[in-house]
């Protein structure tokens, strides 16, 4: 270990996610495996996040993309003018191109999915605090395509996709990957009944009849 690593202060991190169980798990995991990060606060809504970030002035905010009252982009919109030095790293179940592009355009420094390991998450937090941009594999291409603005770039919006809510897209993405309803419920921290409700809604909005047609539909729109 170098002298700089020995004397470096922990990176102050604030967690934003609307699932309390997920926040608790991340906090416990980070506390148990590293002294490079100090979790200074957490929030489950946009309003709580804005107030908490302003109060604690962290170096890095781990930011969920979809929340009931506005999501990660809204947190960025409200916080960045007041605290321009705070770095935001999106941490989401979604790996959809439109979600990645929207939050990066709002000002996030990176985007990683919730499949990331604890050690990889620590490295990502430290790297963005040092000024690097960090993305899960395959997500960087979405950003490069969008900002290059060249033919064949990933679409930012899709009229058909716009019919679906963020949660319906999450359910559809996992369904298209072959997840069972119970597995989707566990992944998204919702009930099986809620999964069934979302699937029925997606089928109605897309005018499709079964999960196999939905899988093809999702694949055509690069959701899988």
From TrEMBL:
Residues 157-222 form the HTH luxR-type domain. Pfam families: GerE (PF00196), Response_reg (PF00072). The modification 4-aspartylphosphate is found at residue 64. Keywords: DNA-binding, Phosphoprotein. Residues 12-129 form the Response regulatory domain. The keyword Phosphoprotein applies. It comes from the Bacteria. SUPFAM superfamilies: C-terminal effector domain of the bipartite response regulators, CheY-like. Gene3D superfamilies: 3.40.50.2300. PROSITE patterns: HTH_LUXR_1, HTH_LUXR_2, RESPONSE_REGULATORY. InterPro entries: CheY-like_superfamily, NreC/VraR/RcsB-like_REC, Sig_transdc_resp-reg_C-effctor, Sig_transdc_resp-reg_receiver, Tscrpt_reg_LuxR_C, WalR-like. GO terms for molecular function: DNA binding. One of its GO terms (biological process) is regulation of DNA-templated transcription. This is Two component transcriptional regulator, LuxR family. It comes from Amycolatopsis xylanica.
